[in-house]
User: What shape does this take?
Amino acid sequence: MNIFRLTGDLSHLAAIIILLLKIWKSRSCAGISGKSQILFALVFTTRYLDLFTSFISLYNTCMKLIYIGCAYATVYLIYAKFRATYDGNHDSFRVEFLVVPVGGLSVLINHDFSPLEILWTFSIYLESVAILPQLFMISKTGEAETITTHYLFCLGLYRALYLFNWIWRFYFEGFFDMIAIVAGVVQTVLYCDFFYLYVTKVLKGKKLSLPA
Amino acid sequence: KEVTDGKDEL
Assistant: This one.
């Protein structure tokens, strides 16, 4: 555990909590892609199956349970409790174009051809692209609420901090996981355009809106 | 350590 890893985890946690609170307080999931949230729930479910097979640490177990719990709570709020506010017409990204290739890739390129390892690999690949339905939705409507942009910033920052964590671990522990690193780079790159808009617009007090 | 062991990172 190093400072980048810890702050990365906390940034991830902050993102998840921000989204849950935004939906809960406003009693609305307008502007939020339910498809991205289903993908994240799928990511956590397939990645944290090792909860049943091995114990790493209390921190590890607690965070995994919180992430999974919050992911399903978010999906529940969007598709059940506040379903009337869900903007399904703008959430039109075809997720099968992500899930099918990612499934194929995780069977082809993995560390070990075992069910748990393939599912872990699937979750890593899927997480790297799971935000695309949300970004697609914003590009379609041309705007995002400020609180939604804070959520996206924390979510992008988390993976960027993990990149520093992997650099740290490579230098000081000789550890590296090529699958996680490549997917993490892809994931972080997908946020770059958004990071630029966040810094140039949102941090200067303007609403994030894209030119028509 | 086996790769199929539990993962430390989240």
